[in-house]
């Protein structure tokens, strides 16, 4: 059946003495509002599949629903792309004043509805950032919710009830839910489908609540959060599902947080260090109270993905002077139990912390700080199967602290907040003790500080985020005592063919490519090594031989750009012979079957090549998906009176999947990434063994004198098995022996070395110096060419650092 319509209206009035209402109060009765067509009258976007739409007929006459359709536009989908899903209303008449409710089939039947549900459809599966239209039989939009083509938070985890019944027939125009809807808590369906209550509004509504709840009727926040010896019992409130009233002080409010944090009045703290005195209040629309306000809140306690909170509570701002809450000291290391005890409280750090996490700083506005940072990758320090490795990673987690940008939207700041006023930001920079003050939030399974405005910052920035001290400057290029002779450099997918696919992995357009080229040219010319091994260059060597003058190998483009910047023909490239290329693979062939390849460039005035370059199919003995490591390229040189062979390598990455690969000693499904070494460790071990076999094969003239350098990105940290295989075979890790074992790469706030120069025993004694040029691993991810680069310099020219050695 259909249901007569009743709308609840919020009372918002200024109290002369006791306080101000800023959120919903009790309902009043209202007559049916008139409309000139069907309108969306209630929107329910609750937990799980608790989603429903109510439409209302206020036209003064029955309306046939035949031909009417609900259309959902998910994830910013445009009108031109068409709806993500649709629902056809049944061929029935909707009487004047009636509502029709359609819900998701998995709607929780345990929720107490004010009225009822008329139909179900799997199309009612929107999230808070999706747009909705209602169209008639001619396809004309009669009402809409959200802005089609734009993905934004229109109404997440909230019930919205219509207050302004003017239809929104332009689904592409800007949308503000607070202009037409009143917000209620998540899963509040007390009004959904309610029948009309005729008559004039109640002439004597309940008086506005005042801030005078007796202390005996108030609940302490510490009781809601819970305390005791069992920390697991506190992750969801012991009072979950119960309705309580609290009186507390607002410590941080921001619409981008979709709410605000409150903390117990100082006099009412329970003094128990195992219980939190703070609480988050979800309110995604309407006017928020301000920091320092004392508020009385009444609501049902909920635990939203681990965060204890109120959601759109009945709210009264007390007419008292602002209250200052002193932040609670937060000292690292701190485990989950200790952080839970500070959840939603105002905290400040007590130690100097260093920047360690930079990837999520760009993508999500989450800067990672750490005690004794930057943090070390566990398998850079200990073998994978050593219990000390797991212990180190567990310790790392207790030492790390995220600082959020008060927003959970992806890439919401362009550039992200710290880059707005800190173009010198680097891993290792220092956040001094006491500078960071904020509320300790819990979101996406992470505790993170939502910072208060700070006087140390750019006044033009949207928020005065606390700035780190620039204690780690960008290093100058190495200048080794006997000259920079051999270098390894991963150039981060240098492709002169643009696109975004499994095959085309580099720049997406000419502007990005020009930026990437400029940064790499500055890096390579500044490094000024005689021989440079390149990793992650486009595997387009077949362009040397295809007879098409319009195609040019990427290595040629790079060398031409290097020479143009140098002002003379300084650089040359190694051209693999057509006889060693393959016609198979992702890119249609080349040096191996992958879309990326290895390469070598050199300065012809300082060295000469000897014999043609050579390679081999390093994956030949693998089964299943055998396209794994990139084929190495080996070239012999006369260098400083030494005949040396440089072999450039790139082993299978940790981010790949190898459970569909088998090889000598392991079967399909064995290489599943179940150890600290990550995915494909067995495949990398196999590659290390095959590499040693190849370079030590007797009769190969390229390796005849056994003065060999194995360089490149081995995708293995220092104490992992593939590196141990090479070391056990007699190859000297020059960075470890001469270069202070410096890191070259960052991942997830951890730092280690994936890039190496190994020397055979016959040439290792000739090496006088080795250095990692840390221009990239310490740089913010946002500075890379495809994000928000700040200049054309070598800084952030790749995600790996180059390694360089010198020979006598």
TrEMBL record:
Residues 26-149 form the LTD domain. NCBIfam families: ExeM_NucH_DNase. GO terms for molecular function: catalytic activity. It comes from the Bacteria. Residues 197-209 have a biased composition (Acidic residues). Residues 187-215 are annotated as: Disordered. The keyword Plastid does not apply. Residues 1-30 form the signal peptide. The keyword 4Fe-4S does not apply. It comes from Ilumatobacter fluminis. It holds the Pfam family Exo_endo_phos. This is LTD domain-containing protein. Keywords: Signal.
């Amino acid at each position: 059946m259909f249901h007569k319509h009743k709308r609840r209206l919020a009372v918002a009035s200024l109290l002369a003495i006791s306080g101000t209402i800023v959120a919903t109060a009790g309902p009043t009765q209202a007559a049916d509002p008139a409309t000139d067509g069907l309108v969306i009258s209630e929107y329910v976007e609750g937990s799980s599949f608790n989603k429903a739409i109510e439409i209302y007929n206020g036209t003064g006459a029955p309306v046939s629903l035949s031909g009417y359709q609900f259309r959902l536009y998910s994830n910013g989908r445009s009108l031109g792309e068409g709806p993500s899903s649709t629902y056809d209303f049944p061929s029935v008449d909707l009487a004047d004043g009636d509502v029709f409710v359609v819900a998701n089939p998995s709607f929780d039947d345990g929720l107490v509805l004010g009225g009822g549900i008329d139909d179900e459809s799997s199309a009612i599966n929107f999230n808070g950032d999706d747009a909705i239209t209602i169209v008639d039989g001619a396809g004309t939009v009669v009402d809409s919710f959200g802005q089609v083509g734009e993905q934004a938070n229109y109404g997440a985890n909230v019930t919205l009830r219509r207050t302004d019944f003017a239809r929104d027939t332009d689904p592409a125009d800007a949308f503000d839910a607070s202009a037409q809807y009143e917000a209620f808590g998540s899963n509040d369906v007390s009004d959904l489908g309610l029948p009309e209550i005729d008559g004039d509004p109640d002439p004597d509504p309940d008086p506005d609540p005042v801030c005078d709840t007796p202390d005996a009727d108030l609940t302490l926040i510490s009781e809601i959060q819970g305390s005791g010896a069992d920390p697991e019992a506190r992750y969801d409130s012991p009072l979950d599902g119960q309705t309580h009233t609290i009186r507390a002080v607002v410590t941080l409010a921001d619409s981008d947080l979709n709410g605000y944090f409150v903390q117990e009045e100082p006099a009412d703290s329970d003094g128990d260090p195992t219980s939190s005195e703070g609480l988050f209040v979800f309110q995604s629309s309407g006017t928020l109270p301000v920091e320092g306000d004392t508020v009385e809140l009444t609501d049902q306690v909920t635990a939203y993905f681990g965060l204890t909170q109120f959601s759109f509570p009945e709210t009264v701002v007390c007419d008292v002077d602002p209250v200052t809450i002193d932040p609670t000291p937060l000292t690292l290391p701190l485990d989950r139990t200790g952080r839970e005890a500070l959840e939603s409280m105002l905290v400040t750090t007590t130690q100097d912390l260093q920047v360690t996490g930079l990837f999520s700083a760009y993508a999500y506005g989450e800067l990672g700080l750490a005690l004794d940072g930057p943090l070390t990758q566990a398998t850079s320090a200990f073998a994978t199967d050593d219990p000390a490795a797991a212990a180190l990673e567990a310790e790392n987690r207790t030492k790390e602290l995220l600082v959020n940008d008060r927003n959970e939207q992806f890439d919401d700041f362009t550039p992200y907040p710290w880059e707005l006023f800190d173009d010198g930001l680097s891993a290792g920079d220092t956040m001094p003790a006491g500078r960071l003050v904020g509320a300790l939030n819990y979101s996406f399974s992470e505790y993170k500080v939502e910072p208060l405005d700070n006087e140390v910052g750019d006044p033009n920035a949207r928020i005065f985020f606390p700035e780190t001290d620039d204690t780690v400057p960008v290093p100058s290029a190495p200048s080794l005592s006997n000259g920079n002779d051999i270098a390894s450099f991963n150039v981060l997918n240098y492709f002169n063919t643009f696109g975004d696919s499994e095959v085309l992995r580099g720049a997406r357009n000419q502007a990005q490519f020009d930026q990437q080229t400029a940064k790499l040219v500055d890096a390579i010319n500044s490094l000024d090594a005689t021989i440079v091994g390149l990793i992650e260059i486009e595997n387009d060597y077949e362009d040397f031989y295809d007879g098409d003058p319009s195609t040019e190998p990427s290595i040629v483009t790079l060398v031409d750009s290097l020479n143009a910047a140098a002002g003379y023909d300084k650089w040359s490239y190694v051209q693999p012979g057509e006889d060693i290329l393959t016609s198979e693979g992702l890119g249609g062939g080349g040096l191996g079957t992958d879309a990326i390849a290895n390469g070598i460039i050199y300065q012809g005035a300082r060295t000469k090549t000897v014999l043609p370059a050579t390679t081999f199919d390093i994956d030949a003995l693998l089964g299943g998906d055998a396209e794994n490591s990139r084929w190495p390229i080996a070239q012999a040189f006369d260098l400083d009176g030494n005949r040396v062979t440089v072999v450039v390598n790139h082993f299978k990455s940790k981010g790949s999947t190898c459970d569909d690969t088998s090889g000598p000693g392991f079967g399909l499904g064995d290489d599943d990434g179940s150890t600290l070494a990550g995915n494909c460790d067995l495949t990398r071990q196999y590659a290390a063994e095959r590499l040693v076999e190849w370079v030590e094969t007797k009769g190969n003239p390229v390796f005849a004198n056994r003065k060999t350098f194995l360089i490149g990105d081995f995708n293995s940290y220092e104490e992992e098995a593939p590196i141990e295989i090479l070391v056990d075979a007699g190859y000297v890790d020059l960075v470890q022996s001469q270069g202070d074992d410096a890191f070259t790469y960052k991942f997830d706030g951890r730092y280690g070395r994936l890039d190496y120069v190994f020397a055979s025993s016959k040439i290792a004694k000739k090496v006088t110096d080795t250095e990692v040029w840390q221009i990239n691993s310490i740089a913010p991810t946002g500075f890379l060419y495809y994000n928000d680069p700040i200049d054309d310099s070598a800084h952030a020219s790749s995600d790996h650092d180059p390694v360089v050695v010198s020979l006598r």
